[in-house]
């Protein structure tokens, strides 16, 4: 019985070593700790960048507040200008009405002057026909008595004064007409100038308002872009934290494996003369057609898009499509799930860390319909981790698969073409 237990323990140790896909054999604890230190450094840098983004957002918010205050002032100025334009327009209409009234008075005055001119012309003709002043002497000399003479003399004086008054009134009316006309034209020109100035001011204010609108839209767009960048940084920070946790788990597993391997080896040495037992591992078998190499095919389907340039951008992975229902997605190699979550771009996505022949790799499985593993889980090559889907920034049901030599990062600087490394359909 003791021999059987020992054999089972040794087999279990060997199975654990194989299960963690090279974490036990190829990646030393020291190298794993170095990777973890590098990740912590990247986390610190991202945290600093997120702080900078927060400062930029606060600065943009302050600028937006200033712009909105300026817009409020401009709106008030526009309202005041509109009122002035309305008032001046009313004044202009009143002036035009006054012009119409004065033009009517001018017409009447001209008619009166014309009548006086006719009266003077009539008197002039009488003067000419009767010899001018002689006719007045004839009037006086024709008096019947002294009283009649006085009456006639007064009448002549009155007529002569009336002629003088007519001439003076004629000049006064003419002067008044000219002054009123000049004053009217001056008032009209002044109102038109003020109205034109107000219209120009209104145009300037509206232009300033449009500029402020554009500036506010630009600031809001910048804030939105920084918010999006911040979200990407936060997502990357979360992923780095998950990578750090995965590596920490790998370190603990490696330490445990080494301890168990040492204990098993010591027990084997102490019982070297004993026979072999018949125990066997009962670990679950993978459901995928696992290849013999370090990696296996992540999904069945049609290879639809390769690594590299695509639609004016870089495609950092490959696409495998399959219209069938419930198409399983498999882990390409043994490893530790770094993160399993719903991303705005990747949709349902799983990140897995692997250590193969001393090299750390990260695989990404995106746009899945569902995920069947959680962050921190240890997975085997060919183990189902989800179902093919069309979530996130995706057009059509497919698996987007990425292979990174080292850790995943937002710039995807470690992405490599999986074709030739990972078996494809």
Show the helix and strand layout.
Blueprint: H1 2-19, H2 29-130, H3 133-141, H4 146-270, E1 302-305, E2 308-310, E3 313-315, E4 318-321, E5 328-330, E6 335-343, E7 347-356, E8 359-368, E9 370-371, E10 378-379, E11 384-387, E12 398-405, E13 415-416
Antiparallel strand pairs: 1-4, 2-3, 4-12, 5-11, 6-7, 6-10, 7-8, 8-12, 9-11, 12-13
Helix pairs in contact: 1-4, 2-4, 3-4
- State the end-to-end distance: 47 Å
Task: Let me know the largest β-sheet.
Answer: 8 strands, antiparallel
Q: How many helical elements? A: 4
Average of the residue pLDDT scores: 79
- Given as residue ranges, the uncertain stretches (5+ residues, pLDDT < 50) are 1-27, 274-286
Written as H for each helix and E for each strand, in order along the chain, the element string is HHHHEEEEEEEEEEEEE
Can you give the helix content as a percent range?
55-70%
Can you tell me about this structure?
This protein has 425 residues and is α+β, with helices and mostly antiparallel strands. The chain has two domains: 1-282; 284-425, Glucose Permease (Domain IIA) (Distorted Sandwich), CATH 2.70.70. It has helices at 2-19, 29-130, 133-141, 146-270, and strands at 302-305, 308-310, 313-315, 318-321, 328-330, 335-343, 347-356, 359-368, 370-371, 378-379, 384-387, 398-405, 415-416. Strands 1, 4, 6, 7, 8, 10, 12 and 13 form an eight-stranded antiparallel beta sheet that branches. Strand 7 and strand 8 (359-368) form a beta hairpin. Helix 1 (2-19) packs antiparallel against helix 4, helix 2 runs antiparallel to helix 4 and helix 3 packs across helix 4. The longest helix is centred in the middle third of the chain and has 125 residues, at 146-270. The radius of gyration is 52 Å and the shape is rod-shaped. The relative contact order is 0.13. Residues 1-27 and 274-286 have low confidence and may be disordered.
């Amino acid at each position: 019985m003791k021999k059987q237990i020992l054999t089972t323990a040794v087999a279990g140790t060997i199975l654990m070593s194989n299960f963690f896909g090279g974490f036990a054999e190829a990646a030393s604890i020291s190298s794993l700790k170095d990777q973890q230190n590098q990740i912590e450094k990247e986390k610190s840098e991202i945290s600093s960048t997120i702080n900078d983004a927060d400062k930029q957002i606060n600065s943009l918010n302050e600028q937006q507040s200033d712009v909105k205050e300026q817009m409020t002032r401009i709106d008030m100025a526009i309202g005041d200008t509109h009122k002035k334009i309305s008032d001046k327009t009313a004044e202009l209409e009143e002036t035009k009405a006054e012009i119409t009234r004065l033009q009517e008075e001018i017409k009447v005055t001209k008619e009166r002057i014309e009548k006086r001119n006719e009266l003077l012309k009539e008197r002039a003709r009488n003067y000419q026909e009767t010899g001018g002043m002689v006719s007045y002497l004839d009037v006086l000399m024709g008096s019947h008595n002294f009283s009649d003479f006085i009456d006639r003399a007064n009448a002549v004086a009155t007529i002569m004064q009336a002629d003088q008054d007519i001439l003076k009134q004629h000049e006064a009316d003419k002067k008044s007409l000219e002054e009123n006309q000049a004053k009217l034209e001056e008032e009209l020109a002044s109102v038109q100038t003020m109205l034109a100035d107000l219209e120009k001011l209104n145009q300037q204010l509206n232009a300033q308002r449009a500029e402020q609108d554009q500036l506010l839209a630009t600031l809001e767009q910048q804030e939105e872009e920084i918010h999006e960048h911040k979200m990407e940084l936060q997502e990357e920070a979360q992923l780095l934290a998950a990578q750090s946790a995965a590596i920490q788990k790998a370190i603990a597993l490696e330490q445990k494996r080494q301890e168990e391997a040492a204990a098993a080896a010591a027990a084997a040495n102490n019982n070297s003369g004993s026979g072999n037992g018949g125990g066997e591992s009962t670990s679950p078998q993978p459901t995928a057609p696992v290849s013999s190499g370090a990696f296996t095919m992540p999904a069945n389907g049609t290879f639809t898009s390769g690594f590299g340039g695509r639609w004016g951008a870089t495609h950092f992975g490959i696409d495998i499509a399959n219209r069938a229902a419930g198409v399983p997605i498999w882990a390409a190699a043994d490893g530790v799930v770094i993160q399993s979550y719903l991303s705005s771009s990747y949709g349902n996505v799983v990140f897995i860390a692997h250590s193969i022949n001393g090299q750390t790799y990260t695989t990404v499985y995106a746009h899945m319909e569902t995920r069947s593993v959680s962050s921190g889980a240890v997975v085997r090559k060919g183990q189902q981790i989800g179902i093919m889907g069309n979530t996130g920034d995706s057009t059509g049901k497919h698996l987007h698969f990425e292979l990174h030599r080292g850790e995943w990062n937002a710039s995807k600087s470690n992405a490599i073409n999986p074709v030739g490394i990972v078996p494809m359909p």
